[in-house]
Amino acid sequence: MHSESKQPNKFHHLSLNWMTSKENKEEIKADAEMLGPAEIIMRTLVVLFLVAATSAEVLERCSWARTLRNAGMDGYRGVSLANWVCLTYWESRYNTGAINHNKDGSTDYGIFQINSRYWCTDGTRSANGCRIQCSELLTNNVGVAINCAKRVVRDPQGIKAWVAWKDHCQNRDVSSYIAGCGL
């Protein structure tokens, strides 16, 4: 049985008391009507990101390397497979659901940490070079992320668009990132 709290809870309709009386339905409707358009949009985005995050995973290094190879990334635009694996290790630790917020207000998404200002849209101002929703980069269906990374590397900056690659992979022996993978 549901016990009443001494403190008022404006979300009491979400508690264990799931009664569907007319009073409860009217109360839920009143709560929803108090939300402004911006709050409704924000809550919708949060739900979408939560749904996307539930299908995200941290990939195993060699499995990820094989996926990249099978997607034609080894040698794509002159970037070796080991460099792609190094880049994604330092960007996301192979986490397809990684999200990081930047000082400029943009956000980086997914295993490649693709930026919302230039490559995908998350409801903020974006060039959307990959023509995708940023939430599409947060699932274990990495095909969208790989295709977007291919688009990024075709840009004049190439692989240097990724700061983590410049800081941790450029001009270094990156062979250890695919060592023992049988590739």
Can I get a quick summary?
By secondary structure, the protein is mainly alpha-helical. It is 38% helix and 4% strand. Strand 1 and strand 2 (107-109) form a beta hairpin.
Could you walk me through the main structural features you see in this protein, from its secondary elements to its overall organization?
Keywords: Antimicrobial, Bacteriolytic enzyme, Disulfide bond. Belongs to the glycosyl hydrolase 22 family. GO terms for molecular function: lysozyme activity. By secondary structure, the chain is mainly alpha-helical. The protein has a domain at 61-178: Lysozyme. It has 6 helices and 3 strands; from the N terminus they run ααααβββαα. A 3-stranded antiparallel β-sheet has the order 1-2-3. Strand 2 (107-109) and strand 3 (114-115) form a beta hairpin. Helix 3 (61-70) packs across helix 4 (81-92).
User: How large is the count of helical segments?
Assistant: 6
Outline the low-pLDDT stretches.
2-21
The largest β sheet comes out as: 3 strands, antiparallel
| Helix content bin | 25-40%
Number of E strands:
3
**What fraction of the residues are assigned to beta strands by DSSP?**
under 5%
Order of helices and strands: HHHHEEEHH
Q: What structural category arises from helix and sheet content? A: mainly alpha
Query: CATH topology of the domain at 61-178, anyone?
Result: Lysozyme
Shape: elongated
